[in-house]
Structures are given as structure tokens and as C-alpha cells.
Amino acid sequence: MSGAIGLSDPGPAAPLPERRPWYRGKPLRRLQSLVGAVVHHHPHRNLFITAMPKSGSTWLARMLASIPGYREWIPTYITETDHTLRPDSLRHPPLGYTVTKLHCKPTSEHIALLNGLQRPYVILFRDLRDAAVSAYFYLHGVYRHDSAAPYRTLGAEEGIARWIDERLSERIEWIDGWLRGHDPKWGLIVRYEELLRDTLGVLHGVCDHYEVNLTAAQLQRIVQRNSFERTTGRRPGTPDAASFNRKGIAGDWVNHFTPALKERFKAIAGDALVRFGHEKSSDW
């Protein structure tokens, strides 16, 4: 598992925002964040998430950044296609309280870093069938990187088949690697489906893992403020193929997987869905 730490393929990953000093862009908001960090007394300065692309990590990060005193932060050297972590970034995060979400691979370096810090972190992934569908629509209609060009001319079945052939194995290795490598004392496994089904309960568990104490009313406000409907203006299940937040549901794969796609997927994934807790058997 040693070697380069960043993602070997560039997508599908959310375009990274421009990094600016805290005093530029939205100075009042930045100043309020830093003042809030002085007022609040959380046990951990940085809440770190490593996530499979398109698995709800932007949503989870935004909810965590809604905790009083916290703000989102990504190291300036991180690029759209390279999420290689330098150890000092997490050992010495910037002033205040921050939330960092990246798509880090489970290399020996990353595993040693996150477990060695002896601070809580979260590992987030989703059903790989839904990942294939979500990735196709993202690459087909949203993502502008050159790597997405082949998908823009493909229909759903062809595009999903291409993603299965090109990227499914790597996603399986990503989940397997973190499941094997994380220290359960520090690394909390979260599945996107669980986060969707019981957002309030899972967020409560995540905050407990990070040792952040919030009232039930605070948790409820955070969930409501960051809901799919409030963020997009659409009810979950109402699609927008041109949006980063396309549909906001789990299980959409049943609407797109043909028998041929099922066989193609099973030929590569084998019993992966059972190992990852998404199926009880390979007969699906």
C-alpha cells in the first residue's frame, strides 16, 4: 500500500474552491470563525474526513462546519487531482477549528499518519453500484476535467459500463484498504446510506466520535440547514443531471443497471458488496 498517496485518477471529485487567506473573500465570516474558535472550547482543532468520491462527503463536511466555531479548510497544496497529504498539515492545522474533507487513498503512509495522530477521523463510502451511476452522471454532465471527455458522448449503460471497467477495482481497493487499515479507536466507518436513512442519528454518532458535545436542538438545526431540499431547492429523488447534487437518494442503481451491467459488475466486484455491508449475499 506504499507509494503515491493521492488519487491515481482525477475523478469524480468535487472541484476544489480557490484557497484564500482568511482576510480575503469573505472577511467578516472568516473573522467570525476565528473569534468563535476563541469563544468555543472543542477538544480537537481539526475534524478530518477521508471519503470515496461522490459519497456524500461534501454534505457531511458542511454539517460539521456548521458546528459553532468550525469552518471548512483544505491545505493550499491540495489540487483537484492530487489529494496527497503532508503530515504537518494535520499535526499543525491553522488557527481555530477546522473541518477537512479529502479523498485520500489508504496507503501505508496515510494509515500511519491518521492512526498515529491518535485523534478521531471518519471514513465515508457508499454502495459501489450507486457510486457507478452517480459517477457516470457526474462525468457525463458536470465535471469539466479532460478526463471526463469520453463520458460526455456515452449513454447511461455505456458510460456506467466504462466506469465499471476503468474504476470499480480501484474503489474496491479503496474501501478494503481503509477497512483493514483503520484503527477502530480513531477511525469511524460511515456509510452514505446510513447517513441518508438516519441523518440526525448518524450525525450525533459522528459528533460523539469527534468528542463534540451538541444539544439535540443544535443537531436538528444543523441537519435542517444542510438538507438536500434546502441546499438544492428540490426534494430528494428529483434529479438534476447538471447538478453536483444530482438526486440525493440511495438505491438509484436499480433504475439503471441492466442484466448485462449486473454481470459486468459482479465479474469485478465478486462478494465486495457483502464485505462492505451493502448486501447479505451475492444473489442480488
Could you characterize what this model shows?
The protein has 284 residues and is of the alpha/beta class. It has a single domain, classed as Rossmann fold (3-Layer(aba) Sandwich), CATH 3.40.50.300. A 5-stranded parallel sheet has the order 2-3-1-4-5, with helices on both faces. Strand 2, helix 3 and strand 3 form a beta-alpha-beta unit. The radius of gyration is 19 Å and the shape is globular. The protein starts with 26 loop residues before the first helix and ends in a 9-residue tail after the last helix. The N terminus is likely disordered.
Break the fold down into its secondary structure elements and pairings.
Elements: H1 27-39, E1 46-51, H2 57-65, E2 70-72, H3 87-91, E3 97-102, H4 108-116, E4 121-125, H5 128-141, H6 156-181, E5 187-191, H7 192-197, H8 199-209, H9 216-225, H10 228-232, H11 259-269, H12 272-275
Parallel strand pairs: 1-3, 1-4, 2-3, 4-5
Helix pairs in contact: 5-6, 6-11
Summary tags:
9% strand, alpha/beta, globular, Rossmann fold, 12 helices, 284 residues, five-stranded parallel sheet, 43% helix
Trace the largest sheet across and list its strands. Answer: 2-3-1-4-5
Distance between the termini: 31 Å
Category from helices, strands and their pairing: alpha/beta
Shape verdict:
globular
Radius of gyration: 19 Å
Query: What is the helical fraction, as a range of percent?
Result: 40-55%
CATH superfamily: P-loop containing nucleotide triphosphate hydrolases
Sheet of most strands: 5 strands, parallel
Individual helix count: 12
Total beta strand runs: 5
β-strand percent reads 5-15%
Overall pLDDT, averaged?
87
- Under the CATH scheme, the architecture is 3-Layer(aba) Sandwich
H-E string: HEHEHEHEHHEHHHHHH
Uncertain regions: pLDDT < 50 for 5+ in a row? 1-25
